[in-house]
Amino acid sequence: MQQSHGKPPMQKAAPGTTKRIFGYIFQYKWRVALVVVCILVGAAAQAGSSLFLQSLVDTYILPMVGASDPDWMPLLRALTLMACLYAAGIFCSWLWQWVIVTVEQGTLKKIRDDMFAHQQTLPIRYFDTNEHGDIMSRYTNDTDTLRQAISQSFPQMFSSAVSAIAALVSMLWLSVPVTIFVLAFTMILFVVVRKVVSRSGRYFVKQQIAIGDVNAFVEEAVNGQKVIKVFNHEDATQTTFDKKNEELFEASAEANTWGNVTMPIVGNMGYLLYILLAIFGGSAAISGLGNFGLSGAGPLTLGTLISLLTLSRSFVNPLGQVSMQFNMVMMALAGASRIFALMDEQPEDDGGSVTLVNVELGEDGRTMTEVDHETGHWAWKREEGDDGTRSLKAAQSLSPRAAEVAMKARETAITSPDGRLTLLQGDVRFTDVNFGYNPDKPVLHDITWFAKPGQKIALVGATGAGKTTVTNLINRFYDIQDGMILYDGISVKGIRKPDLRRSLGVVLQDVNLFTGTVMDNIRYGRLDATDEEC
Fold first, then answer.
1. pTM > 0.85
2. Can you tell me the distance from the alpha carbon of 258 to that of 254, in angstroms, rounded to the nearest whole number?
3. Residue 529: how many CB atoms within 10 A of its CB?
4. Which helix (H) or strand (E) covers residue 316, if one does?
């Protein structure tokens, strides 16, 4: 297979993605605050222990060198204090990593809840025009990358930034010249890392899109496995999969190749900085050269040099960690953009106001009284102020033939004197209906037909003639462009979709069995149905 190694187009996360992620995270503001405090204490403990090395060497260790009767107690007290600093840092590091798990899982649960709840409001058109495997990938791969960012990348980047700032301030406290040298070296490191990160970030975004594409194709192939085998389409399917998998391989390989070299580059340059500081700093300390920092001026001592060497590592290493986590953040933002894209899809528009209510019929079979318990009789209830004249005016605007069909429906409807209640009978009429899944490509044109209550109607035609489309339109899975669909003389556009669908019994062409028993599936349409009714 011919491979493409061209540069992929730059793909970025949608604007506002980071803000929306933190909007979910800050629902746990007290736990987040505890994490921040622990990270600050841990960084302070690390910087404090590095600073303490200066006095440990200069004040406690060097004076004991060559002493005939050294006093070990001051040194032991200093080491105990240093051990307490390390213990505080270790405890805070453990605590914030323990707390962040609850924040991470709670945030993902809320995002999945919101995503699934919004998915239930989307129109059928969305699921017909988006691959199901790609939708599933948003619940699995994209949420997993977001989980890693919340539990690792975001707190680690903050921790690294705080540690680097603490180390920088500590170096300034000890020696301004050495700090300037470290910063100059870091600028060179930053330029190198920036080039690497920009390359890997672009491929990480493309990787997330490719994963969704592969998942969508696999899901489609699994569902259509019988069709693939009937038409001997295995080789063609394999070829298409290989192509999509190759695209995923190239994006993932490039992303991880560039992402994985970041830390070695930073680590090796950090060692180089350490060596340079040791050589020049050691020479300066032996020569007795002067030194000045925020703490004051004086000679560069051995203890000061040891602290500066330790702090230089504490300053450079976090920069490498930030660079590494930045790649994961880019991938998480790409995944979050896809999640929020689903959540930003426009929900299904209802627009209906007519509801389905239980009624008791009078002895004449035409008098109706609304009740709040099941009677076996239902009626359409218009909103207050609507007596049906709006539907009448709309019907009169149709072509003469369609208007006649519509008026006939109104004549046969059983309606209360005030016009608000119309008995549910099952009279369905299409009048001058025009519809196309794509408005520019009509599927039904100028369709007029009717089905009276109790009639059995068969729609016969070749595949693609529009038989299933008719069912979709009656249920308002799609809304028509022109004409009217009347249900007991009422336009289905005026009926609330849940009430409309509750009044219909539909057996779809593609049967779907949900997880559970056969009885559970029979009861799916009415969960309170008894076993005898099923």
1. no
2. 6
3. 13
4. helix 302-343
